Give the backbone structure.
Amino acid sequence: MSETNDTFEAAEGFFELGLFADAWEELDKLQVADRIHPSVMQMRLDILLALERWEDAVALGTGCCKTWKDHKKFFSGTAKALIKLGDHGTALVLLRMAPADLQAQADYHYMMARCAALLGLSCEARLSLRECFNRQKSYREKCLDDPDFKALWESF
């Protein structure tokens, strides 16, 4: 077991240094049973996101969301990749299924608002923004400068 911990810690170290290929290779050294642990899968998703491999991140993240329905990082990472791909409808559906601990965060409501605004769902976007601002006021400035909300601001 300590060998597994050492390998995972090495992968974490490589990841923190931005050596994503090396981190991935370390994860490949794990025994097969350990490779499907949520922490390992999360690191793989983080690597794909860091490498901006959006399609691969969506493929991995979608499966992880189905397997670990209470793991908020799979939902947020997969939604971010979907948003980068411009698939705001799928991101919105995924976010609606996210666990409660993710739904309690300002960033969740910001992503919801962004997707809704880009889909022309202005009422839902406004509600999500209100919830986002209630949770963290610093998002107000960020939203005012975000071009994804331009149409929403113009609708006022």
